């Protein structure tokens, strides 16, 4: 690991523990997530501390994926940490995509406010499953776009769009005659209408997850991201690192939940001795250590693959499956160790359980990634035996 990444990570850890953890009791939150005023307050503190958008350097270059791993893990030590430091989804993934695909003009208009932490963004891809729309299979996309003069006209419905409420930058996926396309849009726009914000198990994302109707949205042609028909290719540029970034952040939160459970198990007495001295509890915490280390190693391995310039689709699928399942085992054990306190909101362990449970579904549920890997195994076998 590089010295610069270690120094950034250490600075972030101090900031999260000393400045952001006290915000966890702030009442500027509802069941859908923190308010934008709370986010703005925390980002001002992060800006003053020099830890805002730490994965993007002053010259616009990015840390390597391996460096990003330890930095994002530290921001994840609090559910509010990624928001404070501007490393949260979907913004972090959208910044990465724009940095790779956007034109100079698009970067100046849409990327710069995101990097500065002055705006939030939303990624409009998923559609209602009950209407046969795109989810884990983006080829089922029903949202359409057609060229009308020097504008594209977009119509469709999107679902589970994270952070759409309050976002200023949108990336909208739609299908043209050429195939999938991506468009950059200014938000809010009267043609993009929130039907409702859906009540979900998690509550760490500002704006929650919305059901959206897009009705005759007109987007200037120069706001198409890349070329018509290449949207799925761009989605992979975004999604492979984004899956790994989720693993990084939630590993930080699972680490914090484990710390809380360890402290509880050492202080809580039962049957004449601390809980940790009972094998049933001590062994669960030992298993946590094993899962945490395996998660860190898997993240580091996959990050190294991405740093070679490979898309790393199979590797990111493996990491998503292994890490999300390991982290869920960790937080589940933390809840169990803490008993009634584990299911209360007196600590962040209960929220960590909810957030990481949701993580096993978004950015592709475990079963879809396993199915994709099985297809690769089949292809590789055919190649090897041809």
UniProtKB/TrEMBL annotation:
Residues 229-376 form the Acyl-CoA dehydrogenase/oxidase C-terminal domain. Its cofactor is FAD. Residues 4-118 form the Acyl-CoA dehydrogenase/oxidase N-terminal domain. Pfam families: Acyl-CoA_dh_1, Acyl-CoA_dh_M, Acyl-CoA_dh_N. Coiled coil: none annotated. The keyword Oxidoreductase applies. Transmembrane segments: none annotated. Residues 123-194 form the Acyl-CoA oxidase/dehydrogenase middle domain. Keywords: FAD, Flavoprotein, Oxidoreductase. Belongs to the acyl-CoA dehydrogenase family. Homodimer. This is Acyl-CoA dehydrogenase family protein. It comes from Sphingomonas colocasiae.
């Amino acid at each position: 690991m590089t010295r610069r990444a270690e120094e950034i990570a250490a600075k972030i850890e101090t900031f999260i523990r000393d400045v952001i953890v006290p915000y966890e009791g702030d009442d500027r939150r509802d069941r859908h997530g923190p308010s934008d005023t709370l986010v703005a307050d925390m980002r001002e503190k992060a800006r003053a501390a020099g830890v805002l958008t730490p994965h993007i350097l002053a010259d616009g270059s990015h840390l390597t994926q391996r460096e990003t791993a330890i930095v994002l893990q530290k921001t994840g030590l609090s559910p509010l940490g990624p928001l404070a430091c501007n490393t949260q989804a979907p913004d972090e993934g959208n910044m990465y995509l724009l940095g790779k695909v956007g034109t100079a003009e698009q970067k100046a208009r849409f990327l710069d406010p995101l990097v500065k932490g002055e705006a939030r963004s939303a990624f409009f891809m998923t559609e209602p499953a009950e209407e046969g729309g795109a989810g884990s299979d983006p080829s089922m996309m029903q949202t359409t776009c057609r060229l009308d003069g020097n504008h594209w006209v977009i119509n469709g419905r999107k679902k589970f769009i994270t952070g759409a409420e309050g976002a200023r930058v949108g990336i909208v996926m739609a299908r043209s005659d050429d195939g999938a396309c991506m468009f950059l849009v200014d938000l809010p726009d009267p043609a993009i209408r929130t039907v409702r914000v859906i009540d979900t198990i998690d509550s760490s994302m500002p704006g929650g997850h919305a059901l959206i109707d897009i009705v005759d949205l007109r987007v200037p042609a120069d706001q198409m991201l890349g070329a018509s028909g290449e949207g799925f290719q761009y989605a992979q540029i975004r999604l492979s690192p984004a899956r790994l970034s989720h693993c990084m952040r939630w590993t930080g939160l699972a680490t914090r939940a484990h710390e809380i459970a360890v402290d509880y198990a050492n202080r809580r007495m039962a049957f004449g001795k601390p809980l940790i001295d009972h094998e049933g509890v001590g062994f669960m915490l030992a298993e946590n250590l094993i899962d945490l280390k395996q998660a860190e190693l898997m993240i580091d391995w996959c990050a190294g693959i991405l740093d070679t310039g490979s898309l790393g689709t199979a590797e990111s699928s493996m990491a998503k499956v292994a890490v999300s399942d390991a982290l869920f085992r960790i937080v589940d054990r933390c809840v169990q160790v803490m008993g009634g306190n584990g299911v209360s909101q007196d600590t962040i362990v209960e929220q960590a359980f909810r957030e990481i449970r949701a993580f096993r579904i978004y950015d592709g549920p475990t079963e879809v990634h396993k199915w994709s890997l099985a297809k690769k195994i089949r292809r590789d076998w055919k190649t090897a035996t041809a």
